[in-house]
Amino acid sequence: MKEIQSKKNTFIKEIKKLTQKKHRTQTNTYLIDGWHLVQEALQAKVPIKALLVTPRGLSEANGQLDDYQEESYLITEEIAAMLSDLPTPQGIFAVVEKQEQNLQTLTGNWLILDNVQDPGNVGTMIRTADAVGFSGVFLGEGTADLYSTKVLRSMQGSNYHLPILEGAIPPFLKQLRSAGVTIYGTELNKEAVPYTELPKEQTAAFILGNEGQGVHPELLALTDKNVYIPIYGQAESLNVAIAAGILMYFSVS
């Protein structure tokens, strides 16, 4: 295992840049921080470009890194503190190569996110879609970056369990409809129906929109039906991740 002692090391500086979306895009890699996420990546057998571990982290590894000696680097606690945004870093990081998603079919249930900008919400919704057993998640333009630190932490490894696609939403809706998937938008208007009136379908997609503005009107015009979740108290609205969870669990219950 190679050792790195200095925070000024060129390799460490390049890894630190992975906190920036631009650098993640240029290198086609991303950084994960913490034991649970690293274990999820190892179990998923995704391409690991580098593993960085402190002496404390190495003592907790219990042989889990034995097959990755060539990719492993022993780093100091100071370097770990520089790479992590956690108050107390766990002492293990991995540089992971992004993977293309090649789907053979689009059937089943899908969650579609339109310009959802809060990374915690995005990660939570992906994690919930994983828990519910959805077929996949589609991240539309303007949505928080899948590989940002906060999204990765909120997903807790769910990105290794189900397909996550990115791009423009209208072409994807066309593909879903061709596959027989019913598309629901989320909007409160006179033509929308309560979510409890939806049929129990195994081929449904739900579009959730921006925290403040909701789903774009042009996307709502492309849906089969728009739905809403009734509010019985005095709150103005539901958190988008909570709303998504309600709709997803209802659709499969």
TrEMBL record:
Single Gene Ontology MF annotation: methyltransferase activity
InterPro entries: Alpha/beta_knot_MTases, MRM3-like_sub_bind, Ribosomal_eL30-like_sf, rRNA_Methyltransferase, SpoU_MeTrfase, SpoU_subst-bd, tRNA_m1G_MTases_N
Pfam family, one: MRM3-like_sub_bind
A biological process from GO: methylation
UniProt xrefs under CDD domains: SpoU-like_rRNA-MTase
Keywords: Methyltransferase, Transferase
Domain spans labelled RNA 2-O ribose methyltransferase substrate binding: 31-102
UniProt record similarity statement: Belongs to the class IV-like SAM-binding methyltransferase superfamily. RNA methyltransferase TrmH family.
Name of protein: RNA methyltransferase
